[in-house]
Amino acid sequence: MDGWEFSADGGSVLVVTRQGIMIGATDTTSLHPVMLDSLTARVPLGRVADPDEVAKLVLWLASDDSAYASGAEFTLDG
User: Is the pLDDT of residue 15 over 70?
Assistant: First the structure.
């Protein structure tokens, strides 16, 4: 079943992709400074994302507020 089939039944297909999320023990304080600099240099905002930032998007996508979104990819890459 693809996105067209889901939308015909009132559903939607949405994808969330991300880059550079810090979780658990892998936070910015545990990374070697050179590794952190290398990671954040490729991010326009100059920092990695917090898991809560991803969760907020997913919660919005799961809510009725995103009812018109369908067949879309949402990229969180700073």
Answer: yes
